[in-house]
Amino acid sequence: MAHDTSSDAQDRQDQVFRAMSPEQRIAMAVEMSEVAFRMAADGIRLRHPGYSDEEVRLTGIRLRIGDDLFRSAFPAGPVLPA
């Protein structure tokens, strides 16, 4: 249980999740991932306002997968500060 969540709130959340279909849980997970990716991109843009959309996208990928795998996947891609 999260330290900032009451046991009543946690119990209610558990009930809601158990009542959801697998498809609903997957849809929620995908939506949460998309929100997290947008938030990360917003953070990159705040730190690097001059980055193009492609540079933001590539920097986000590099942050998620690490430098070594990024360089393997995008050998010609730019290595930009995150």
Care to describe what's here?
This protein is 72% helix and 0% strand. The mean pLDDT is 92. The protein has one domain. The protein is built from 4 helices and no strands. The protein has helices spanning 7-19, 22-47, 53-65, 67-73. The protein has 82 residues and is mainly alpha-helical.
The biggest beta sheet is recorded as: none
The percentage helix is over 70%
Individual helix count: 4
> Using DSSP, what is the number of strands?
0
What Rg is obtained from the alpha carbons, in whole angstroms?
18 Å
Q: Could you provide a short overview of the structure?
A:
It is built from four helices and no strands.
Task: Describe the SSE topology.
Blueprint: H1 7-19, H2 22-47, H3 53-65, H4 67-73
List keywords for this structure.
single chain; 82 residues; mainly alpha; 4 helices; elongated
